[in-house]
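Per-record layout

source: Hymenoscyphus fraxineus
name: NAD(P)-binding protein
length: 263
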Amino acid sequence: MSHKLEGKVIVLTGGASGIGLQTAHLLYSRGAILSIADNAEEGLKNAVSSIKAAYPSSTGKITSAVVDVRDRAAVENWINSFVKENGKLDGAANIAGVALPGIGTQALEDIPDEDWDFVMGVNVRGVVNCMRAQIPHMKTLNDGAIGGSIVNTSSIAGVTAGAYNAAYAASKHAVVGLTRACAKEKAPQGIRCNAIAPGAIDTPMGQRGLEIMKMDGKVYEKSIPMGRFGVPEEVAEHFAWLLCDGSSYMTGTIQVFDGGIVC
């Protein structure tokens, strides 16, 4: 069974930074035909430039699109245009996500409606919008084949819960349910759907969370059974695995990636 990604046509959200950026690096380096989306225009430009410069001999291709995943029409236009250009869609990495400025410090009853709606809009509706645009292309490939791999992004907050984290936890639990429901529904059509649930990963969003909660990263590391933060490159490897044919019998799984925090 092949672990290769060369020639695979893949879309990815959240590609301007963190886990999304490193996953884009890895997929491109392995020859994928890739389109990355984010709402940060400057970050996207820098991402594409850095990725191309890092792998001058790659057989991959990369394009980008400024997209707010909350906007269903914008998501559909991006994915439809990319598929029209490349003739098929093999995989999707739905990574875009946000957390509240008050994560880890704000009581449930104090969360403003606009903050709740923002988190749910990106983390839940954004994933739904992406999947609704991706699935039809995996069902009707131009060569008559069917199938594809969708990898969503949950969190350890989506398989457990913590105080003062209600909006983020609820949104990531929703991704788990969405992923499992899709896996059951689309398995007969050869479409796989899995999710990765990262824990403490050294990303800009993770560092902001520590700052908001006034936590010392070195102290927090000691609470992780493996004694360290994960890095985006490690998570990217797992996205690549779930997108390749080597994981062809895996669907409906939630892959906890946390150094042992919730085991």
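summary: The domain at 9-257 is CATH 3.40.50.720 (Rossmann fold). The longest strand covers residues 191-198.
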